[in-house]
Amino acid sequence: MDGELVRAAALYIESCRAEMEKRIVGQRDMIDGLLTGLIAGGHVLFEGVPGLAKTLAVKTFARITGLQYKRIQFTPDLLPADVTGTLVWEQATGKFSVRRGPVFANVVLADEINRAPAKVHSALLEAMEEKQVTIGETSYPLPQPFFVLASQNPIEHEGTYRLPEAELDRFLIKVLVPYPSPEEEVRILHSEGKSTVDAPALEPVLNDQAQTVLKNAAEQIFVDPQIMTYIVAIVTASRPITKLSGAAVLKKNDIEKSREGLYRYIAFGASPRASLALYRCARIHALFDGRGFVKPDDVKAVAHSVLRHRIVLSYEADADALDTDTIIARILNLVPVP
After folding, report:
1. Which of 86, 154, 190, 288 measures 20 to 30 Å from 277, CA to CA?
2. Phi then psi for 151, rounded to 5 degrees?
3. How far apart are CA 320 and CA 138, in angstroms?
4. 282 within 8 A of 298, measured Cβ to Cβ
5. How far apart are CA 6 and CA 11, in angstroms?
6. What is the bridge-based pairing of β-strands 43-47 and 147-152?
7. In CATH, what class is 3-189+206-218?
8. For the chain, which ranges sit under pLDDT 70?
9. Cβ(334)–Cβ(259) below 8 Å
C-alpha cells in the first residue's frame, strides 16, 4: 500500500469534512455516508425526521464535488417520465425528440423517496443498477459518476409506499440521521442570524483529481483473507433459510441459542450484494482512519449501515419490539472475530 496515497486521501477527506461543516452542524455519520457513496460509487439512503438538514447536506456535497446536481421531489402522483424523461412530438420536424428527465445528473437527490408509487421505483431501479435509462425503444447512458442519494421520513406513513426489497438492496448503505445534540442545536441557532452573503464560500475540494485519488486509495487497502471470511460469515449468519450453513460459522456453544434467539426473528437475510458492500465499506472505513489495511473493527463499524435495510424481520420481531440494528448486533456477537 502506497503510504503517500493514503496521506493524500486523508487530506482530501479532512478537507471535505471541513467544507461540509461550513453549512452542516454535526452529523458526521451523514457526511461520512456521502463520502462513502462517492468513493465506492454506490447509492445512499438517509432516514430521519424532517428538519435534520438531509437535503442541505446533499446540496452542499454536490457543490464541493463540482458534480451536476438534480433534485426530485417524490410524490404519490409522480410518473416515471417525470424522473427519466419522455418523447416529445416536434410539430416542425414531424418527429419525436427526447426530453431527458432530472435523473440525467451525477448526483440525484430523491427526496422522500417512499412517497412515490411502484412504477416510479421500477424506472429508478434501471438507472440505479444499469446506469442507463430507456426512453421509448432506446437506452441512454447516464453521466458518470452517477449515484442516488435518497431520503425518507420514518415517522409519517400516510401517503407513503414501502420501498421494494430489490430497490433497497441496490443502496450501498442506509444511514440513520439522528437529532443534533443540545450543544449542536445551540450552534445552529447562532448560525441562523447569518445571511447567505456572510456565510463562508464553499470550495470544490473534491474535484476530479481528488475523487480519483480517493478511489485509487480505497482500492489499494489490503484485506486479509481471514477478514473476507469474516465478512461472508456475518452475511451468511443473517440468512435463516441456510440455518445449517449459517450456524456452522457461529461459535459451537451458541448454535442452538442462535437458532432459537436469532433466526426466528429474521424472515429473509442479506444477499451476496451485502457481502460486496461490506467489503467495500470496510476498506473505506480503514481509509477514513488513515490505515492501509482492514481490521475486524472496520467491518463491525459499517455492518449496521450495510445490513439494516437488507434484513427483513419476521412478525415475531415486531411482536417483541426488536429492530434490525438489534438483530445485527446479535449477529456480530455470535460470529467469531478472526
Report:
1. 154
2. -125, 150
3. 50
4. yes
5. 9
6. parallel
7. alpha beta
8. 1-2, 155-161, 193-199, 241-261
9. no
The pLDDT tens digits of the residues spanning 44-88 come to: 999 888 888 888 888 888 888 888 899 999 888 888 888 888 878
* Residue written as grid cell 426530453: 99
Q: What is the pLDDT of residue 246?
A: 47
Of the candidates 71, 51, 35, 69, the one whose C-alpha atom is nearest the C-alpha of residue 173 is 35
Q: Where are the domains of the chain?
A: 3-189+206-218, 221-334
In the numeric block, which cell numbers belong to residue 64?
A: 464541493
CATH superfamily of 221-334: Magnesium chelatase subunit I, C-Terminal domain (1.10.8.80)
pLDDT value, residue 245? 46
Q: What residue type is assigned to position 117 of the chain?
A: P
Task: Supply 145's cell numbers.
Answer: 459518476
**Beta carbons of 15 and 61 less than 8 angstroms apart:** no
Residue with grid cell 412478525, as numbered in its chain: 315
At residue 158, the pLDDT reads: 57
